Amino acid sequence: MYPNVLGLPFLHTYGLMIAIGFFLACAVLERAFGRKDLGNLAVALVLAGIVGARASYVIEHWQSEFAADPISVLYVFRGGLMFYGGLILATIVFFGWCFWRRQNPLAVGNLGTVVVPLAHAFGRIGCFCYGCCYGKVSDSPFAVVFPVGSPQYFMDGGKQLPVLPTQLFEAAALFALFALLFFVYRRYRRYTAGLYFMLYAAIRFSLEYLRGDPRAAIGPFSISQAISIAMFLFGAGLLFHERASYRR
After folding, report:
1. Residue 169 Cα to chain centre, angstroms
2. At what angle do helices 13-31 and 39-60 cross, to 10 degrees?
3. What is the DSSP letter of 221?
4. If DSSP codes are grouped into helix, strand and coil, which group holds residue 162?
5. Which CA distances in Å does 67 have to 11, 61, 73, 74, 224?
6. Is residue 139 within 8 Å of 132, Cβ to Cβ?
7. How many other CB atoms are there within 10 angstroms of residue 140's CB atom?
8. Residue 97: other Cβ atoms inside 10 A
9. Which pLDDT value is given to residue 153?
10. What share of the chain is helix, strand, coil (3-state, %, to 5)?
11. I need a labelling partner for 99 at 20 to 30 A (CA). Which of 66, 115, 128, 147 fits?
12. pLDDT tier, 248 (very low <50, low <70, confident <90, very high otherwise)
């Protein structure tokens, strides 16, 4: 766990990883696909993603983390973002941008979703460096022990326990998803938006069973699992629509 780069209190690893992921995603769009015109959209989506991700995380963890110190809601640099909340708000901004610029949302979405897992993977590495989004207590050889002062330490009553590094599990899955979507888009120039929503939903739904941090629930599922189900169905609908349109 390295919350600060080189031990400097003003340089947070979490924010650095998000920045690296963002710039790499933009570089892929420009170098591999020649889209230099999506820079403003990318910035808008990142800002919307951060706001949405923070808002949803605060709502889910209000009692456990923020009720006693509401001003800490503003400490985004410490970590604490819920990806699905960011994705929902970024999607709204995305459709607004496409309407304003008169762009085909599915065509732009197929390209944009190729690089989302790449940026997201670095964000999850940032989660690991900060210590949030950790897994369940485990005696697995893959388990890690976060230091005193980490989110896991405080949530488990001041105990350093071996937990699964679910942040790294998800990062690895996201890098693999990026490679798959990159290949599909280069070959077909379509289908990647539907595949992204379906495959990431499956990844997140599965990993939720390994998470050890506080999870709000909707019936038998966590909030993220419930969103994953809706996201999977949405992706399947996109894929079906695109395949049907292509066959005409």
Report:
1. 13
2. 150
3. E
4. strand
5. 27, 9, 9, 13, 22
6. no
7. 13
8. 18
9. 83
10. 70, 5, 25
11. 115
12. low
CA–CA separation, 209 and 167 (whole Å): 13
Whether residue 6 has pLDDT greater than 90: no
171 burial class (0-12, 13-18, 19+ CB within 10 angstroms)? buried
Task: Please tell me what DSSP assigns to residue 246.
Answer: H
Q: Which residue has the tokens 């990318």?
A: 42
pLDDT tens, 61-79? 787 778 887 888 877 766 6
- pLDDT, one tens digit per residue, over 7-20 is 666 577 888 898 89
Compute the CA torsion angle 132, 93, 35, 104 (nearest 10 deg).
130
Q: Is the dihedral of CA 119, 218, 66, 73 positive or negative?
A: positive
Tokens of 186: 């280069």
Tell me how far apart the alpha carbons of residues 241 and 43 are, in angstroms, rounded to a whole number: 29
Distance between CA 209 and CA 222 in Å, rounded?
A: 9
Q: Where are the domains of the chain?
A: 5-189
Tell me which amino acid residue 131 is: G
Q: What would the pLDDT profile of 178-200 be if each residue is shown by its tens digit?
A: 999 999 999 998 999 999 999 99
- Structure token pair of residue 140: 């697995």
DSSP code for 11:
S
State how far the Cα of 57 lies from the Cα of 65, in Å rounded to an integer. 10
Contact (Cβ atoms closer than 8 angstroms) between residue 174 and residue 198? no
Identify the residue whose tokens are 């390295």: 2
CB atoms near residue 32 (< 10 Å): 13
